[in-house]
Amino acid sequence: IQGRQQYKEFTGNYPVGNNATVTKSLLGHGEKKVLILAVRRAHMNDKGEIVDPWGVPLQFYFSNDQVLIRSAGPNKAWEDSASPDADDLYRCARMEK
After folding, report:
1. For the whole model, what pTM was predicted?
2. CA 2 to CA 41: how far, in whole Å?
3. φ, ψ for residue 64, nearest 5 deg
4. For the chain, what is the largest distance between any 2 Cα atoms, rounded to a whole number of angstroms?
């Protein structure tokens, strides 16, 4: 989340697109040449996507001034949060405008 905020501070907006596109933007390979060092330490797969500790690509959701990052969790399966056995992990934060 901090990397996306830093990107916005330098470029004026948040990176957009799917996981691979957002990752490329944060690595300085997008339209705007800004390198966010926090992403360089992240684990990535061979498609250039940021992955969770279990190797599953993270999902990013942007809405106005909020970002939600979702991991499939240890069982590597996307589940409904209402399921009693769901182990998906979520991180939500309000971003500065």
Report:
1. 0.62
2. 13
3. 50, -105
4. 44
